[in-house]
Amino acid sequence: MRIEKKQIEEVNKRDLKSHQDHYNFLGAQLTNQGHEVDEVVKKLSQFQVAIPSWALGAGGTRFARFSYYGEPSTLGQKLEDVGVLHALTKTAGAVSLHIPWDVPEDYKAISELASSLDITFDAVNSNTFQDQLNQKESYKYGSLGDRSSVVREQATAHNIDVINIGKKLGSKALTVWLADGASFPGQNNFQESLGNTESSLKKIYASLPQDWKMLIEYKPYEPNFYSTIIQDWGTSFMLANACGERATTLVDLGHHLPNTNIEQIVATLMYKGKLGGFHFNDSKYGDDDLTVGSIKPYALFLIFNELVYGMENNPKNPELSWMIDASHNLKDPLEDLIQSLDAIQEAYAKALLIDQKMLKEAQKDNDVTLCQEILQRAYRTDVRPLIAEARLIQGGAINPIKAYRNLGIRQNLINERGANSKASGL
Ligand code: LRH
Ligand code: MN
């Protein structure tokens, strides 16, 4: 399924006048406040987020999985769905593959399809948290950190295979997330597990092409429920430093214990030039993988405040990988991803409206009240006309959810693929 530009133009027609009124009104307001509105819109239009290939079908929990009809059952169909998201939002110009869930059968065909949809391949993800059919060694008790050198070698070899798959697709980054850990005290020797993990990561790093980066993702718990070897940003940061300059830390928003100050972690990693990228999602309790901005939109805004400051003041920090990592138990996966893309753009746009110079002044004067006023003036600005304009000037939809429904995309996918097609992934 492909969305043609003229289909979107048709849907936009009804909203064009009111959009222009809102945009002109907000533009005048922001210009009076000293903002370069065109600059903000340009930054929004250049901001591309990678869609996780494993989140284009219905997710599930250990209790149940309620299928969503017309799911993509091949990598080609997954790229088409990312193409639909990109055609409507113009901010989903990349996909992040998970191996072995998404090993291309025909690299040439997949690359041609991706470029015809104006999609690039962002980080590729290895998977040593599941056993594959006919796999020699099990990852039940660990992988890169396992006490058995045979298991570690198998897991290291898998990560190098993933790099080679990514190279054929033009990817420039490897994401390593390890489920490795223990569910009971005494099960593992912490130092032995950490040491094993460090030496395995170093071996993988040694195989990383010179123009690639390695993203080390941390997580406090699940599937292990007592300890996880790479449990927090500090452990990931330490391992990234042990590996080398192109090893960095990946922040998955759902991988933090309650009330963790994630924006401070972001600032700390950027200060040290070790922030590699994000897995955006939202959560109320654990790694809930909910729609971005659906639970804690202000926290996301504060994170983007640190990102905007860091992108301005930490030149040594590598270019960031912006990716979503979500799971859809109730919503149409494509609508859920559209809402996530919108929330990310909203947080970024609001953060771009923070008067950093005025904030610096107020901080210098310890004018705590004014500091909050400066942040919240930006946060309380309805930036939706800026995001719609950034989409519109690229041929996207003023209101993507409305366009998605008006164009009957889900029904078309069901007609094309049948109701019971099922996506690989989580
Ligand atoms: C682990 C994680 C990781 C992926 C997986 C799909 O919770 O966030 O990024 O490999 O989800
Ligand atoms: Mn993740």
Q: Write the CATH homologous superfamily.
A: Divalent-metal-dependent TIM barrel enzymes
Number of helices: 15
Structural class: alpha/beta
Pick out the low-confidence regions: none
User: In total, how many domains does the architecture comprise?
Assistant: 1
DSSP summary, beta strand count: 11
Helix content class:
40-55%
Textual characterization of the structure:
The chain is of the alpha/beta class and 426 residues long. The chain has 15 helices and eleven strands. Strand 2 (94-96), helix 4 (107-116) and strand 3 (120-121) form a beta-alpha-beta unit. The longest helix is centred in the first third of the chain and has 28 residues, at 5-32. It binds 6-deoxy-beta-L-fructofuranose and manganese (II) ion. Manganese (II) ion (MN) binds next to loops. It comes from Saonia flava. Keywords: Isomerase, Manganese, Metal-binding. This is L-rhamnose isomerase/sugar isomerase. Its EC number is 5.3.1.-, 5.3.1.14.
Supply the key terms.
9% strand; binds manganese (II) ion; 15 helices; binds 6-deoxy-beta-L-fructofuranose; alpha/beta; three-stranded parallel sheet; globular
SSE topology:
Layout lengths: L4 H28 L4 H10 L3 E3 L22 H15 L4 E3 L10 H10 L3 E2 L2 E2 L23 H21 L3 E5 L3 E2 L7 H17 L6 E5 L9 E2 L4 H11 L3 E6 L9 H10 L3 E6 L16 H17 L7 E4 L8 H20 L3 H9 L3 H12 L4 H9 L7 H7 L2 H9 L9
Parallel strand pairs: 1-2, 2-3, 4-5, 5-7, 7-9, 9-10, 10-11
Antiparallel strand pairs: 6-8
Helix pairs in contact: 1-13, 2-13, 5-6, 8-9, 9-10, 11-12
Bound molecules: 6-deoxy-beta-L-fructofuranose and manganese (II) ion (MN).
Protein name: L-rhamnose isomerase/sugar isomerase
Keywords: Isomerase, Manganese, Metal-binding
EC number: 5.3.1.-, 5.3.1.14
